[in-house]
Amino acid sequence: MITILAGGTGSVKLVRGLATQRTDVNVICNVGDNYWLYGMYVCPDIDTITYGLAELLDVERGWGIKKDTFGFYVRWKFLAKRRGLELVTGILLHI
């Protein structure tokens, strides 16, 4: 069993590389950069590791989901400005 202490977007390369060679890889991931955004708890390093292991990582940027359009986020920001943040936050929680 291998345990990796991972932090930052660069660690996903190490994790992905080891995961191709072994099936018993554990990751302890940085949570120091986590934050709240529009009522959602965002964990960027955990997300990056998860996307990388699932082969969903946008390797050009080094973070996020490949081919992500950010369409929902853009639309949500538009609605928040137009209708009031409280209403849109309520809608978001039901999606």
From TrEMBL:
Keyword Transferase among record annotations: yes
GO molecular function list: LPPG:FO 2-phospho-L-lactate transferase activity; magnesium ion binding
High-level lineage: Archaea, Nitrososphaerota, environmental samples
SUPFAM superfamilies: CofD-like
This protein's UniProt keywords: Magnesium, Transferase
EC annotation from Swiss-Prot or TrEMBL: 2.7.8.28
Originating organism: uncultured marine thaumarchaeote SAT1000_09_A04
Keyword Magnesium annotated: yes
Protein name as catalogued: LPPG:FO 2-phospho-L-lactate transferase (CofD)
Name of the encoding gene: cofD
Enzyme class: transferase
UniProt feature coiled coil, ranges: none
